[in-house]
Specification:
Layout lengths: L2 E6 L7 H14 L4 E5 L7 H5 L9 H5 L9 E2 L6 E4 L12 H14 L2 E5 L6 H9 L2 E6 L3 H16 L5 E8 L1 H7 L3 H8 L3 E6 L3 H7 L4 H4 L4 H12 L10
Parallel strand pairs: 1-5, 1-6, 2-4, 2-5, 6-7, 7-8
Antiparallel strand pairs: 3-4
């Protein structure tokens, strides 16, 4: 059975969606069957991070309502193992039928090894929907004081929901800035009170890859792309040291 992984952040602007796309692509290139679902209802951005802005993908609501089978999900032209469903734009997260969404994910478990739920930032209905169904949670933050505080609050809420497999990714790290701020990744971990899954450096190639409609891992092998590959191997259970390179 496949595993549901919710990618969450308490605050917008942490690079959560780009990270979700990068990790999913890294797992796909390692031979895993992967499904990415954009759950940010009303706002579609995961397609950009995947290099699929012109793909015309189905929304997950099309599948939930039975208009199409899950097999009709868009397949990535550069990662045959990676499928994608976008978010619907003409509804609210509160209007999503949780039972139908859950049924779709049950079907997805039988077809994919990893199913990534790219949740909207914040703690509203979209967050609740993704977090409640997830087997594992990746909580994304950066070194900004507001982002760290929001991550800590989000971790508390997840604990209250009975979610215990929650791991932290510190994104957009900058060694020089951290030194100026007298801040370390350990400080961020201590504040969020979560174990660390990975550290991702601030990398302009993330933006450039989106501009050129390329998946990050096809655009570069260094920086954030290399970090996503390391995180993917850790998700598979491989012993990979945590570092910034």
């Amino acid at each position: 059975m496949g595993e549901l992984i919710a990618v969450l952040s308490g605050k917008g602007g942490t690079g959560k969606t780009s990270l979700c796309a990068g990790i999913a692509a890294a797992l796909a290139e390692r031979g895993e069957q992967v499904l990415c679902i954009d759950c940010d209802v009303g706002l579609q951005n995961l397609d950009l991070a995947l290099g699929l802005s012109n793909a015309g993908a189905l929304s997950f609501l099309d599948i939930c309502r039975g208009a199409y089978p899950l097999s009709a999900a868009t397949r990535h032209p550069k990662y045959p193992n990676l499928a994608f469903l976008t978010a619907p734009v003409n509804c609210r997260a509160e209007d999503i039928d949780k039972a139908a969404f859950s049924d779709m994910l049950r079907t997805a478990r039988a077809q994919f090894r990893y199913i990534f739920l790219d949740a909207p930032a914040g703690l509203d209905a979209g967050f609740q929907l993704c977090a409640s169904l997830a087997d594992r949670v990746i909580l994304v933050t950066n070194g900004d004081a507001a982002a760290v505080r929001d991550a800590a609050r989000t971790a508390q809420i997840l604990e209250g929901m009975g979610k215990h497999d929650v791991r932290l990714v510190v994104n957009r790290t900058n060694k020089k800035l951290y030194k100026t701020m007298c801040l370390t990744v350990d400080d961020v971990m201590d504040e969020a009170a979560l174990p660390l899954l990975g550290i991702v450096p601030n990398d302009p190639n993330v933006t450039l890859a989106t501009v050129f409609d390329e998946p990050l891992l096809k655009y570069t092998k260094k920086g954030a792309a290399a970090a996503c590959r390391r995180i993917a191997r850790r998700i598979q259970g491989l012993p990979v040291p945590v570092s910034i390179r």
